[in-house]
Amino acid sequence: MKKNNAITVHIYYTGENGSAKAFVKEMLTSGLVDEIRKEKGNRCYEYFFSVEDEETVLLVDSWDNQEAIDLHHSSSIMGQIMELRIKYHLHMKVERYFLDETGIPKEDQKFVQKKGLLRK
After folding, report:
1. Residue 2 neighbours by CB under 8 Å, 6+ apart
2. CB within 8 A of 65, min separation 6: which ones?
3. How far is CA 55 from CA 6, 12, 21, 100, in A?
4. Cβ(65)–Cβ(9) under 8 Å?
5. Start and end of every ABM domain (predicted)?
6. 12 with 93: CB under 8 angstroms?
7. Residues in a beta bridge with 45
8. How much is the CA Rg of the chain, to the nearest whole Å?
């Protein structure tokens, strides 16, 4: 069986005076997000807003493998993203995660609320 090398990257964009949210808005309205989602090897590209820190936005960016990330990084899209990061004066914190092919351990599954089991 072929090993899955999927990588998920969390990028925390932080700015001032709403600049991180403005960055996301421009990423969406410019069509860049749609282009990235169509790139070979992209599994997920979603932004999330922090409830506790209004100046930080989380990007969850997932790829099939490092090669897919490398292709993305060498694309013209990446250059446009970098220009927008500069335009909005964003700082970044980056975390990388690898897919755990073993799944959720049996001991942990009891803490996962499943559809159809919700109490009314």
Report:
1. none
2. 5, 6, 7, 41
3. 29, 10, 8, 31
4. no
5. 7-98
6. yes
7. 61
8. 17
Assigned token pair, 112: 């996962």
Sign of CA dihedral 12, 13, 17, 21: negative
Whole-model pTM: value is 0.86
Q: How far apart are CA 55 and CA 117, in angstroms?
A: 36
* Contact predicate 75/63, CB 8 Å: no
Q: Are 77 and 85 in contact (CB under 8 A)?
A: no
Profile the chain (120 residues) by mean pLDDT over runs of 10 residues.
79 98 99 98 97 97 97 97 98 95 86 69
Asked if 12 and 56 touch (Cβ cutoff 8 Å), the reply is: yes
Which tokens sit at 97? 């995660």
Q: What domains lie within the chain, and their CATH numbers? A: 7-109 (3.30.70.100)
